[in-house]
Every structure is written in C-alpha cells, then in structure tokens.
Amino acid sequence: MNLRQQQQQAFDRSGEPLIVGNVSHCPLPPETLAALGPDSPYVVQVYGSGLTGEVYRLRIAGKEYNLKKRRAVAGVANLNGQLSFFK
Q1: Would you say which domain of life the source belongs to (predicted)?
Q2: Which of 11, 16, 55, 81 could form a cystine bridge with 47, CB 3.0-4.6 A?
Q3: Mind spelling out the 3-state secondary structure of the chain?
C-alpha cells in the first residue's frame, strides 16, 4: 500500500465527512441528491458501465448536472476499488 492509499484508508476509517465546495451551490439538498435513483424524474440518462459507480445525468430547473453514485458492491475488489469512493 502506497502513502496515498494509506492516507485515504485512514480518512475512510475515521468516519469524518468529506465536504467539497459549498452546499448552497447544490441544485437540490445533498440528502435529496444522495437518495436519487435511476427512476427519478431528474435523471435524464444513466451511465452504468463503471466498475465502482454509476453516473446520472440530471436536469434540474433547466440546467444539467452529473452525479456519480457509488455501487453497493464495486466491480473491483482490490484496494483501489475499495478506496474509489468514501463512505
């Protein structure tokens, strides 16, 4: 395990939230975005070929966004697959 992977794993195990950007810039509340599924009326297209996640193309209030969501079970079982998303 290299230094970067060690740091990522330590952060993942810490349980601390990863906050990037400003919540006021989100088109919907983060809780709503986290709960979106492929059948949501906001979802225009689903890119489901990723090994660790799916990307939803969203249309909200006339603007388009991409939302990458973690798969329940990653298609990659190695360390990189485990650390590709933080919980």
Answers
A1: Bacteria
A2: 55
A3: CCHHHHHHHHHHHHCCCCCCCCHHHCCCCHHHHHHCCCCCCCEEEEECCCCCEEEEEEEECCEEEEEEEECCCCCCCCHHHHCCCCC
pTM for this prediction: 0.77
* Contact in structure between 56 and 43 (CB atoms under 8 Å): yes
Q: Domain coordinates of the chain in residue numbers?
A: 3-82
pLDDT in tens, 19-40: 889 999 999 999 999 999 999 9
